[in-house]
Amino acid sequence: MVKRHAFKIGLIGSFTLSAFAHYSGLLSPIVQFAISCVAIVFVAGFLGKATESVAHYAGERLGGFLNATFGNAAELIIAIFLVKDGLFDIVKASITGSIIGNLLLVLGLSVLLGGLRFKEQHFNVKLASHNGSLMLLAVITLFIPAAFVGSLTDGETFNLSLFVAVILIVAYLLWLLFSMVTHKKELSDPIVEHGEPAWSKRLSIVFLILATSMVAVQSEWLVSTLEVFSHQFGLSELFVGAFLIAIVGNAAEHSAAILLARRNKMGAAIEIAVGSSLQIALFVAPVLVIISLFFGHPMNIVFTTFELVAIGVAVIIAKSISQDGTTHWYEGVLLLVVYGILGIAFYMV
Amino acid sequence: MVKRHAFKIGLIGSFTLSAFAHYSGLLSPIVQFAISCVAIVFVAGFLGKATESVAHYAGERLGGFLNATFGNAAELIIAIFLVKDGLFDIVKASITGSIIGNLLLVLGLSVLLGGLRFKEQHFNVKLASHNGSLMLLAVITLFIPAAFVGSLTDGETFNLSLFVAVILIVAYLLWLLFSMVTHKKELSDPIVEHGEPAWSKRLSIVFLILATSMVAVQSEWLVSTLEVFSHQFGLSELFVGAFLIAIVGNAAEHSAAILLARRNKMGAAIEIAVGSSLQIALFVAPVLVIISLFFGHPMNIVFTTFELVAIGVAVIIAKSISQDGTTHWYEGVLLLVVYGILGIAFYMV
Amino acid sequence: MVKRHAFKIGLIGSFTLSAFAHYSGLLSPIVQFAISCVAIVFVAGFLGKATESVAHYAGERLGGFLNATFGNAAELIIAIFLVKDGLFDIVKASITGSIIGNLLLVLGLSVLLGGLRFKEQHFNVKLASHNGSLMLLAVITLFIPAAFVGSLTDGETFNLSLFVAVILIVAYLLWLLFSMVTHKKELSDPIVEHGEPAWSKRLSIVFLILATSMVAVQSEWLVSTLEVFSHQFGLSELFVGAFLIAIVGNAAEHSAAILLARRNKMGAAIEIAVGSSLQIALFVAPVLVIISLFFGHPMNIVFTTFELVAIGVAVIIAKSISQDGTTHWYEGVLLLVVYGILGIAFYMV
Fold it and tell me: What Pfam families would the database entry show (chains A, B, C) (predicted)?
């Protein structure tokens, strides 16, 4: 009860403060950026709760679909504003950052902190194996355009990107069909036991709309401070997108996964981290390519070598660690070590 | 019986038509190319039957060896004619296409179509693990010359290629020794239950010689229409070699593997797809390097980056999917998605 | 008893001869190089025995730590002399050679020779899985600086190298903590059953100091003949470092691992080969970066593409072969084939 009140105060307070900072222009860019980051964590949390509540009323199947597709709604909305402003490099950096943040930081902290409490933690290998193949697919489809781009014109590159985007979205929808309809029982692993939802059906829908709008507004404010902020600190857009934006945008996944790991539900923790990065790669990234068409300046799906190295490396080490069905604290260290080295490398570039 | 007659008519008809098209020069290149493709499917099928029949009389051990080495005889013969004409780029493209065609298209269709009939299909993990290591070896040996070629002269590159070729052939022969002699029982998995062979021993040998000659002649005709055809349609040689030639050359594997998958013999289906691509990489490719010596214009074993990316990607995703011993329809989708993306990328380059 | 005397004579004889060759300057560089190689095998063997003996008296935990960190003391000392002379290319080549020598040559010979005696050999998969993840980490951390180095200045490259080095040493120490303290029981697998140590506690310590000094002196002599020798035979420093130095420096691991494989202790053989290469990558390489600071000419941790390809390839094939918990002779052939192809490629470059 107290916790819920604290959340409400944090949400309204940070959002109001952020609005004030944005419209008054009185605060320094650093303060404004910091406030925006805090506010985005709160509004993303609000959107998460509203989605869950609507999903509860929507029934099992549609609810699962809603949860799955709205899970990264905040990242998607932030990215749409970046695409609108033509900041393609930051968009791709933040996609990269979301993937490696989930696979290395979220998973690493979960395995480490869970492993400090339990000597050995177990999970369903079958699910991990399926997710591993999907992650590989995601990496592969991001690598192929980059490998061929040197021999293509800009127009051809975009056409290839569009084709890849459509194929990925179809593959993602088929994956939902597979995991929620045809092979539901085998793989399903309850992630959170919901009690009664906090709100009535009607209120949930109102809140879902409200939360989405707040995320949208807040994302625009955040993006508007980005350039000034990164300039002032001499940070590359790559670093800001891949580390700052990504960590802020994934705050909800972090806390949820770590909490589950500490309760010895390692399977569910892995499911959140891996599932979220899969969704980014197979759904958010291609949707952004298609959306860019409507803004009149098409964005291709070609990532830089640094980004591909980072994503490839993250997938390989996460796959290797999750394939034997058990985790120990040291495997968390390994994931965090790779994240740290990537972080310093991105910072330096 | 009806089926056998239909095959006989198709074989003789398409071959005669193809001969007419070739020598008269009356038909347009497109029609000529189409007829050649149909005819090559039939003569390759004939060669397959003759090989099996001879193998039956040759006894288990020698027969297995014959089946294994003649399995890709059609591809080998087509490629020899390409090597003779100095069309090295198409040779390598068709090797690439054979490998990815088997691992992605044949395997993908088998897993998808088998999976639509059976909810879950199982196979012997041990065999898959061995094949996986061999596939890795094949990829690795194709990558190494490409990685080093930038610092070598043409002569050194060919020497390295020759050395790699000899080592690969030795490795392949040792693999036959391993899988057919020293560790036969554990791994063997009967792919087809043969009834009585259709022909007498003498007739089988005659037919083997006849079929080989027909494949040789037909291959030469096909190759002679290739350049005109690809020019006319504005297709790159890479695309023609890697997709058209490869699909035609592997038609037999396609039908056999899919049939087995539909009968719930997924292990045998995988064995055909993976075994065929292994043979291409570890036996056909090195043999072509050695054969090129006799034509006076040595061909090296260095593949382009695109080809290496395609092969690497195909092996990684096929290995990932086959390593847990079960398949579902969705894994077939994944394989086909990667094949589709590679196809469009090769088409665009 | 006889064996021990033969070793003593070999040690003193080769060391004296090597000293004579070095100081007299009478012998040709080839003879001098050959003598140095023989002598280094003997002094490295002496250092190994002394370490074991001291470890015996130091108690289980400290002893394990000593064995683990002194296991590659000879390589480390040779490398330090190379760093002192600024021969960074040979240092990195010898690190590469040590890693691939252990993973391909030592492991390959063990699996092949063990497999010729026993049809199938088994080992603990869990340990292999842990080691596999660590090997991946090692490869990844060597790849990251190389991927980013194109966009960095020399100073930044060294800073990144230093950062990576410190992180790797911390990760290595945490690995010792994990495998020797928090998760000891599960993973431990006694490698050698020691009888009574040959020497008293005091003598062991004296011998450890003496052996270390002899290795140091002998390494300096070996390094001093290197350049003349490789020049005379037209060998690249890459080849000399990666193959000659590495084979000589790992002679002890070779004999120990093969002996264990022939006694059907495949787990222990793998442990030696993989453990040694892990130590090189995660401990020796970063320590050398830090040591280079004290010599006033900082060495970065950026490897050439050839070296990275070699290391990556070795790790991938070794990981693939060791992940199913059984080995056959043919898997040894695969490892040796990759080693052979890398060898010829390095020789040619």
Answer: Na_Ca_ex
Q: Which residue in the set C125, C133, C174 is minimally distant from A321, CB to CB? A: C133
Q: Which of B74, B89, B82, B88 is CA-nearest to residue B42?
A: B74
Please report, for residues A152, B137, B318, C274, the alpha-carbon distance to residue C78 in angstroms, rounded to integers and kept in the order given: 49, 32, 43, 21
Residues of A in contact with B96 (CB under 8 A): none
Q: Which residues in chain B have their CB less than 8 angstroms from residue C329's CB?
A: 178, 182
Question: pTM for the complete prediction?
Answer: 0.85
Quote ipTM for the complex: 0.83
Q: Where in chain A does DSSP place strands (E)?
A: 121-122, 326-327
CA B4 to the chain's CA centroid = 24
CA distance C94 to C82: 10
Residues 114-143 of B with CB under 8 A from A: 119-120
Query: What tens-digit pLDDT sequence spans chain A (349 residues)?
Result: 577 788 899 999 999 999 999 898 888 888 888 898 899 888 888 888 888 888 888 776 677 667 666 778 878 888 898 899 888 988 899 899 999 999 999 999 999 999 999 988 988 877 677 778 888 888 888 888 888 888 888 888 999 999 999 999 999 899 888 888 888 755 444 445 455 677 888 988 899 889 888 988 888 888 788 878 888 888 887 788 888 888 877 777 777 788 888 888 888 888 888 888 888 998 999 999 999 999 988 999 999 988 998 999 999 888 888 877 888 999 999 999 999 999 998 888 8
Q: Is A264 an interface residue toward B (CB < 8 Å)?
A: no
Inter-chain touch A152–B305, beta carbons under 8 Å: no
CA C235 to chain centre: 22
Domains of chain A: 2-348 (1.20.1420.30)
Q: C166 and chain A: CB distance < 8 Å anywhere?
A: no
